[in-house]
Amino acid sequence: MSLLLEGVSHIYGEDTNLAVAALCNINLEIPEGQFIGLIGHTGSGKSTLIQHLNGLLQPSHGKIYFNGKDINEKSFDRKELRSKVGLVFQYPEHQLFEVTVFQDVCFGPKNLGLEQKEVEIRAYKALKQAGVKEEQFYQSPFELSGGQKRRVAIAGVLAMEPRVLILDEPTAGLDPAGRDEILGQIKKLQKETGITVILVSHSMEDVAEYVDRIIVMNKGKIILDNTPKEVFKEYKCLEEVGLAAPQVTYIMESLKEEGFMLSAEVTTIEEAKQEILSCFKK
Amino acid sequence: MLKDITLGQYYQTESLIHRLDPRVKLVGTICYIISLFLVNKIQGYVIALIFLAIIIRLSKVPFKFMVKGMKAILFLLLLTVVFNLFLTPGETLISIWKLTITKEGVRVAMLMAVRLSFLIIGSSVMTLTTTPNHLTDGMEKLLNPLRKLKVPVHEISMMMSIALRFIPILMEETDKIMKAQIARGADFESGNLIKKAKALVPLLVPLFISAFRRANDLAMAMEARCYRGGEFRTKMKPLIYQRADRLAYLILIIYLVICFLAGR
Ligand SMILES: Nc1ncnc2c1ncn2[C@@H]1O[C@H](COP(=O)(O)OP(=O)(O)OP(=O)(O)O)[C@@H](O)[C@H]1O
Ligand SMILES: [Mg+2]
Prior knowledge:
The structure holds two protein chains of two kinds.
Chain A: E1 3-12, E2 20-30, E3 35-40, H1 46-53, E4 61-66, E5 69-70, H2 78-84, E6 85-88, H3 101-111, H4 116-129, H5 146-158, E7 164-168, H6 176-193, E8 196-201, H7 204-208, E9 213-218, E10 221-226, H8 228-233, H9 235-240, H10 247-257, H11 269-281
Parallel strand pairs in A: 3-8, 3-9, 6-7, 7-8
Antiparallel strand pairs in A: 1-2, 1-4, 4-5, 9-10
Helix pairs in contact in A: 3-4, 3-5, 4-5
Chain B: H1 16-19, H2 22-38, H3 42-59, H4 63-70, H5 74-87, E1 92-96, E2 99-102, H6 103-129, H7 132-143, H8 153-183, H9 193-199, H10 201-224, H11 243-263
Antiparallel strand pairs in B: 1-2
Helix pairs in contact in B: 2-6, 2-11, 3-6, 3-11, 4-6, 5-6, 7-8, 8-10
Magnesium ion binds at residues 46-47, 90, 168 of chain A.
């Protein structure tokens, strides 16, 4: 289930005088099973890029391949693609419409033409995976809090059992506890099922703990694409484009400048703690 | 798909016509429409065409862009032409089965087609060169005398500007929700009419909810800024006629006179 982008560009409003080049010449390979963080400043083209991955937007130039097949070919089965590449939009709670939470989550699998029984099994599983409490299953989705709605909306996509799960800022507007919980659940799911996850965010801090690869975008281009450790080493470059490495990186850098013998290979607070403790023990 | 509708949409660029006072453009459009219905000789239409062509040229809006908006009402135009062609009584030209085309019919049909397309293009020039806010501002000021007759002019124009303001927002919202549901496997295109109507539920429910939420937020925001209706409200940028506007009125009058003299 690999995705391959070749020279993809996207221009909004191409034949008006307000044309915006949102993506320029993106080349990208996304193999199966990776947990990827897609990071960029506001307006850098993240949302535009991910909408190409399940065929919601067509590139102005370039090609996108899913398992070696061009997804914008006429004969390509888009519906199949959309069941394999699940996309959770920014503020997904705005897409809820059903009478109960459970029915809303059933919407996706039902559209896949599955049997009622299978639909319900999937919905139940997805709600559990997204961390929705059982007593909320038969409530109206509009009575839930923002964070709970978010989980329901994520479950709505999980119920389609995609092989690639893309989440556009799933934690925007949530408190730190809610954020860690949702991201933790997604990480767990990814480990258990081996799906590919692409997590869009504009905060390094959010994703550093979870991802194995970070793609940094700026003005429609990919400027860095590497493991978190390597990306954070370029923190000067990140600052130039209005981003920042996690705070631990800065602390470790300062400590090193003060002459402490620390390794640079630290990305999370937990690792930093271990590193500093072991330094003092020496 | 929704973006193809250009009728009533603003086209942003810098031009003489864009800078005119919205009142001039409103009055001008109304006068132009009246002139179209007053003249009935070919010379009159030639003058109307030249006038329109000059205005379009000055507005710097690509003609292609205007024609794109025309497509939406092409059907209406055709319908009018066909009805007039066949249903006008008079001297018979051709008769096929029960349908007859009369000499008068051809004339009226052609007249209607020309009038309608000039009318539509003429008024779209106004909307393409004036922001909705400006337009309602101009309308409010023009209708101001009606206040004496207890017509709630300010309220009407406020409602209009809010409605106009919400159109692009709701279009964007529709687009977003549609995409989100398509990503969940929704299908808005295939199937028969009933199936299509049913498929709209996942789109309309969130759309209505978001419209209500936005309306609520807006009302709250207006209240928080002490909005109390039109009474004693001053404007940051009041509409004041400039030299170009007076000149435009003069040109308009000249056009009307020529059109009237040549076209009657
Ligand atoms: N529907 C649209 N029509 C025209 N331009 C658009 C549209 N959507 C996005 N853009 C433009 O494309 C560029 C990239 O937008 P995009 O939504 O992909 O950014 P983003 O990285 O997701 O930002 P954010 O972090 O704010 O979500 C922006 O300059 C934006 O103005
Ligand atoms: Mg975005």
